[in-house]
Design brief:
heterodimer, A: 309 residues, mainly alpha, two-stranded antiparallel ribbon, 14 helices, 2 strands, globular, B: 503 residues, six-stranded mixed beta sheet, 18 helices, 22 strands, 33% helix
Chain lengths: 309, 503
């Protein structure tokens, strides 16, 4: 049982890949398709990796979907104003970071439930995004060099896949090696115990929320680069899938705690299911039902692990 | 009316009750007294059906009475009002009264008018003036206490049990409550009440029962006993086994508090602790000892006053400055506020010392190699038995968790160790080891300030004893001049006497 709870996610992914490979050896199991999946999952993975920061605090940030959308619209608008690639990217990432810092500050200082606070912030961001874009899809003025950040291959590997790997390493570095990350996990594990050992709750919380939306803004930039356009609600779909990925990953590698590698794995499961079912010709609504069932199954596996202790 | 004979209850190897006798008569107010841990709560929980006794019997109106659960006890006519409030803050008094009860209904829907009038009837019958139409969060603590009592009296009550109903009340509020209690008794209800205020016991009780170590130490009519008599019963004979000795002569002042109060509602106090001292802080629950300790640690934003450690001034709150000055604190409840139970042993040991084991001095990157070896040393020094550093800390025994929780703070930099109930729920061997850790620290010139409810521990470990009551220090003596009776006397000091003594 301990094995199942420890490596449940990895085993789950292996089983799912095996099933799809058996059902569709010519379509799903082709190397080109598998490489394609790593590209399809990468943006979800980056948003989810950000969400792992707030999950490590045992909090939620429901604004991440809106921040992805905002980052897209903001960057294209700045390009349209004649901004260069680097200033645009920096400004967009800074805006994303700032959004989380505000949420985190309110959550830590006034103990506003993060659920409500970030729901409100997400709504505000959605409004701002609509305002900037006037509700339209923006696509003019995006430099070709910027678009290369989200498309093409380096040594046979999709660029987006490399971004996801880099994001995983970044989050792993912070959560596993940087003192800030260790403090986030301690606050999430037992806030009072962390406080009484001298952990300063406010800065830790602000950092976690800020890094979370920073990652969402990065995903928004890459999404825009990949599509060559930005839609005012283009990123909203990431929200629930991102938390599903983190949750799936919490059973992997570090039992019960959000972690980078597990989150990447969680995103992979969601992407593999979507890809496999599409190739098998299963309708969209069934894909949603499957994804939901997988999340429930992972929760149950996790709880088995808990009670076995 | 209610009789308890030879009641015993064991938890694991510990006898919480060991043949208790209690006899309560209708129409009389019965005070149930005893130190912390004497068995009062366990006895009440046996009566309310929460615990089932291992031996002995209870009779109620001459019939066998052995409630299997709280509902049975309630059906028999017993009502319990617990020390802590169990009200839904946003509900009105009468809404609260119906929580857990069957709601009156009218054509299937909740009949609000009937709810209100039934509760108002109970209120008026007892002649109490309480606003029952506002959320109880807008009522004072005393008024909430009255709501709790009224709730207990919604149906006919034969026996009303009040567990420290006045602990958080002002003198005036307590007096109002006393009137209600007397009134209930006059109507034929038996009232059992637990109190740590001896003055109120003498003011309103007719009979008393004193528990000590799970046994009935004495019982009778209040008219036949005086305060020293009660205190003697609670304290028992003088048990003077191995007393703490001063290992080294106290050195320079290490912790100095002046005009320091944990909150605006608490009286300010002055206190100096010298290096090499082990100071025990005793008092009944609610006397302010834990909040004093938390305030010294800087975890209480309401604290005011002057504090210095090693001559360095510290702000009245803020934990990180304390840590820099070599102060360490271990809270009372390791589950809720001490450890992160589902994290690894390593993570838990590391938490207070994050920042010490770095890859490079100025880089906040954890060197897991240094951290692991540091943690191993810490755990070995504190004699913690464990499997692997990656195991969850919840897999350790209580004693080992406690040793790890204390040991993780210890190092050459520690000047002052603050411990809240350092050995509660810990086996004898670990207890001795924890005491050893404290003595070693003190011998090396640090100081230890610990809170305990266990008089044995106080006498064994503390070289100097402080007793608190109602937020004041009512006794401050060296261990060798101390008697059990003196401690109990000071802990049960009345508010008035305490004020007179310190001013």
């Amino acid at each position: 049982m301990r094995l199942v709870s420890r490596f449940g996610t990895l085993m789950g992914l292996a089983v799912i890949v095996a099933v799809f490979s058996a059902l569709s050896p010519q379509g799903f199991a082709q190397p080109s398709n598998l490489i394609n999946i790593t590209q399809q999952m990468s943006l979800l993975a980056i948003v989810a990796l950000g969400a792992a920061f707030v999950m490590s605090l045992s909090e939620f940030d429901l604004s991440i979907g809106s921040v992805v959308s905002l980052a897209g619209i903001l960057s294209v608008s700045l390009f349209a104003q004649g901004w260069g690639i680097v200033p645009t990217a920096v400004a967009t990432l800074a805006a994303g970071f700032a959004v989380g810092c505000v949420s985190g500050f309110f959550v830590a200082t006034w103990r506003v439930p993060s659920f409500i606070m970030t729901l409100a912030v997400g709504t505000i961001i959605g409004g701002v995004t609509y305002w900037i874009s006037a509700g339209a899809t923006l696509f003019s003025g995006i430099p070709a060099a910027f678009r290369d950040l989200g498309r093409g291959y380096v040594a046979g590997v999709p660029v987006l896949t490399l971004w996801a790997v880099a994001g995983t390493l970044f989050v792993a570095l912070i959560l596993d090696w940087i003192e800030l990350g260790r403090r986030m996990l301690a606050v999430g594990g037992n806030r009072e115990a962390a406080r009484l050992t001298g952990v300063k709750i406010v800065p830790v919380t602000v950092w976690a929320f800020g890094l979370c939306t920073l990652m969402a803004a990065l995903a928004g930039l890459l999404l825009t680069a990949r599509l060559g356009s930005a839609h005012p609600t283009g990123g909203n779909g990431f929200l629930l899938q991102a938390y599903a990925a983190v949750y799936l990953g919490m059973t992997a590698f570090r039992d019960g705690q959000p972690n980078a590698a597990g989150t990447l794995l969680g995103a992979a499961i969601i992407a593999v299911v979507a890809n496999g079912l599409t190739i098998l010709g299963v309708p969209n609504y069934l894909q949603d039902i499957f994804t939901g069932l997988i999340i429930i199954a992972s929760v149950m596996v996790r709880n088995f692990g808990r009670t076995a202790d | 009316m209610l009789k308890v004979e030879g009641l015993s209850k064991r938890f694991g190897g510990v006898a919480a009750l060991d043949g208790v006798e209690l006899s309560v008569a209708a129409g009389r107010v019965h005070a149930l007294l005893g130190e912390n841990g004497a068995g009062k709560s366990t006895l009440l929980k046996c009566l309310s059906g929460v615990h089932r006794p291992d031996a002995g019997r209870c009779t109620f109106d001459g019939q066998d009475f052995a409630p299997a659960n709280p509902t049975e006890s309630e059906r028999a006519g017993l009502r319990f009002v617990h020390q802590e409030l169990n009200l839904v803050p946003s509900f009105t008094a009468y809404e609260n009264a119906f929580v857990g009860r069957r709601y009156p209904r009218r054509s299937g829907l909740v009949d609000w008018r009937a709810m209100r009038s039934r509760f108002a009837g109970v209120r008026d019958r007892h002649g109490l003036a309480i606003d029952i139409d506002v959320p109880v969060s807008r009522l004072s603590v005393a008024q909430c206490q009255i709501v709790e009592i009224l709730r207990a009296l919604m149906d006919e009550a034969r026996v009303l049990v009040l567990d420290e109903p006045t602990a958080s009340l002002s003198e005036k509020e307590a007096a109002a409550l006393h009137r209600i209690i007397r009134d209930l008794a006059a109507h034929g209800c038996a009232v059992i009440f637990v109190s740590h205020r001896l003055d109120e016991v003498f003011a309103i009780a007719d009979d008393y029962t004193v528990l000590r170590n799970g046994r009935t130490a004495g019982a009778g009519r209040i008219a036949d006993i005086d305060r020293p008599g009660i205190v003697a019963l609670m304290a028992g004979g003088e048990l003077r086994q191995q007393k703490a000795e001063q290992a080294v002569a106290p050195g320079k002042p290490l912790l100095a508090l002046s005009d320091f109060s944990p909150s605006p509602a608490r009286p300010p106090l002055d206190l100096t602790i010298r290096s090499g001292e082990i100071v025990g802080l005793y008092g009944v629950v609610g006397s302010g000892r834990s909040s004093l300790l938390r305030s010294v640690w800087g975890a209480n934003p309401l604290a005011r006053g002057n504090m210095s450690v090693d001559g360095r001034r510290l702000p009245p709150h803020g934990i990180s400055r304390r840590i820099e000055s070599g102060v360490a604190y271990v809270p009372e409840d390791r589950r809720t506020s001490g450890l992160v139970m589902h994290h690894s042993i390593l993570d838990n040991v590391l938490l207070p010392r994050l920042g010490r084991d770095r890859l490079a001095k100025r880089l906040p990157v954890v060197s897991w190699r240094a951290a692991s070896s540091g943690a191993r040393t810490t755990l070995a020094d504190s004699n913690v038995k464990y499997g692997r550093l990656d195991d969850r800390i919840s897999t350790l025994s209580g004693g080992n968790q406690q040793k790890a929780m204390i040991g993780r703070w210890l190092g050459p930099d520690v000047r002052l160790l603050l411990l809240d109930e350092p050995t509660r729920g810990v086996d004898v061997r670990s207890k001795a080891e924890i005491h050893g850790m404290c003595r070693k620290l003190a011998a090396n010139g640090a100081a230890v300030l610990f809170v305990t409810s266990d008089i044995e521990e106080l006498l064994m470990l503390a070289q100097r004893v402080l007793v608190m009551a109602h937020g004041r220090v009512t006794l401050d003596v060296a261990n060798r001049d101390l008697t059990r009776r003196g401690i109990v006397q000071a802990a049960f000091e009345t508010q008035a006497a305490a004020a007179g003594e310190t001013t």
